Amino acid sequence: MKPEIHPTYATSTVSCACGNTFQTRSTVDAIHTDICAACHPFFTGKQKLIDTAGRVERFRQKYGKASA
Asked: Does the predicted TM-score (pTM) go above 0.90?
């Protein structure tokens, strides 16, 4: 490897808009995100199915799924 061409790889602080912070390794000192695993709907179990223009209902009617 060539010397002095690689960036420094150090501990970095990641902060989310929800207030959650954690440490990781990166070439950047601080990372700011809008969403993280603590507030993402998929990981928290609060994910909702959004019905856009009745598409979900049409799918359920077509394939015989009972609406919830």
From this structure: no
Distant-in-sequence, close-in-space partners of 15: CB < 8 Å, separation ≥ 6: 21, 30, 31, 32, 33
pLDDT digit string, tens, across residues 6-36 = 888 999 999 998 899 999 999 999 999 988 8
Residue spans per domain, the chain: 10-63
Q: What's the token pair of residue 63?
A: 């394939």
Any idea which architecture 10-63 has in CATH? Irregular (4.10)
Question: What span, in angstroms and rounded, lies between the C-alpha atoms of 32 and 16?
Answer: 6
Query: Per the structure block, which two tokens stand in for 54?
Result: 């009745």
**What is d(CA 3, CA 8) in angstroms, rounded to the nearest whole number?**
12
Residue partners of 7: CB distance under 8 A and separation at least 6: 27
In the structure encoding, which two tokens stand for residue 22, read together?
């954690």
Q: Give me 14's structure tokens.
A: 């990641």
